[in-house]
Design brief:
16 helices; alpha/beta; five-stranded parallel beta sheet; single chain
Length: 371
């Protein structure tokens, strides 16, 4: 076997990078050219812009996530939807932790095998209610990966402390079950006690392995499980459901901002929701709580201002900073008052120099000294 190995690697020297080091057994030598981070970013953005198909851009961005404003629609919605539908055919390498029914009784051991010991944020899904696309099974991993990319890019959370997880309990999607490239087990979804026991073991193992202060964000669980899990673990874990509470926060923030034009209060308005799913009911409940606080009226009275019939704001503006704040504050539970504070903060005046302000809120490239 040839002892000479070539690898594309990056050696950090201050804020510069050596590209294309050559290894020979225990000896390495870098190319003489030192390439700056700015140059690397410029080159990668040039490559990404050559792609015309959003899905191709998504695949390229998975190797490098930078330039948030331009790449947000690629890493996150809307492109992530198509990416997860075709996740099996574009799958290259694992980007998170998969936990299936086969790991029942061994989840704690599985978490301990994850290479990073310090985890601050976990985004977990079972892929049953994926955006408006239905049940995508374990191919829903694209959402935890994309969400955590935004935690790092927008919220300042250290990437090594982010853990995307998919709880794979099967899928009821007939098309996926027949897809030769589907990366999950070809079995129908587990329900009832089998499902509940697996989730309980997972939540217990996470707390035992990472402690009280690790944030667990539920993502894309079906309605019947989403509300149940939030009610069961909201008082014992630092957790929130982004579909229910994250979306609610950003919509309420929009309403509070709109009141500046109307010169009125929330209690002066009547609200009609077209849809009563996770997002709609989550928004309605947080809205009622804010009205109750403003008017000092009982919550039941505030709810009378809100109507829901039948069963797009972008919560990317809420959850990264919200999650980062939970981590930095050392919180061990999520309360509605925290979500209301996030809404108010979103309505604050825009800084004159947005880039400079954002940089002042971010961690420095010297990750090891950051806390």
């Amino acid at each position: 076997m040839d002892p000479l190995y070539l690898r594309w690697v990056f050696f950090v020297e201050g804020l510069t990078l050596y590209q294309g080091a050559c290894f020979h057994r225990d000896v390495w030598s870098a190319t003489p050219v030192v390439i700056t981070q700015q140059s690397q970013e410029k080159k990668m953005m040039h490559i990404i812009r050559q792609y015309e198909v959003p899905l191709q851009k998504y695949m390229a961005v998975m190797d490098l996530q930078t330039n948030v404003e331009e790449l947000l629609p690629v890493v996150y919605t809307p492109t992530v939807g198509e990416a997860c539908q075709k996740y099996g055919s574009i799958y290259r390498r694992p980007q998170g932790l998969y936990i299936s029914l086969k790991e029942k009784g061994k989840i704690l051991e599985l978490l301990k095998n994850w290479p990073e010991r310090s985890i601050q944020v976990i985004v977990v899904t079972d892929g049953e209610r994926f955006l408006g696309l239905g049940d995508l099974g374990c191919q829903g991993m694209g959402i935890p990966v994309g969400k955590l990319a935004l935690y790092a890019a927008l919220g300042g959370v250290r990437p090594s402390e982010c853990l995307p997880i998919t709880i794979d309990v099967g899928t009821n999607n007939e098309q996926l079950l027949k897809d030769e490239f589907y990366i999950g087990p070809r079995q129908r979804r587990a329900t009832g006690k089998e499902y509940d026991d697996l989730l309980h073991e997972f939540m217990t193992a996470v707390k035992r392995n990472y402690g009280d202060k690790v944030l667990i964000q539920f993502e894309d669980f079906a309605n019947h499980n989403a509300f149940k899990l939030l009610a069961k673990y909201g008082t014992t874990h630092l957790t929130f459901n982004d579909d229910i509470q994250g979306t609610a926060s950003v919509v309420l923030a929009g309403l509070l901002a709109a009141l500046k034009l109307l010169d009125g209060t929330l209690a002066d308005q009547t609200f009609l929701f077209l849809g009563a799913g996770e997002a709609g009911t989550g928004i309605a409940e947080l809205l009622a709580r804010e009205i109750s606080i403003q008017t000092k009226a009982p919550l039941e009275e505030a709810r009378k201002k809100i109507w829901l019939v039948d069963s797009k704001a972008n919560n990317a503006y809420i959850f990264p900073g919200f999650g980062f704040g939970l981590g930095m504050s050392g919180a061990i539970r999520v309360h509605d008052e925290m979500l209301l504070a996030a809404c108010v903060a979103t309505c604050l005046p825009r800084p004159e120099n947005l880039v400079k302000y954002a940089e002042s809120c971010m961690y420095t490239p010297n990750y090891r000294s950051y806390r």
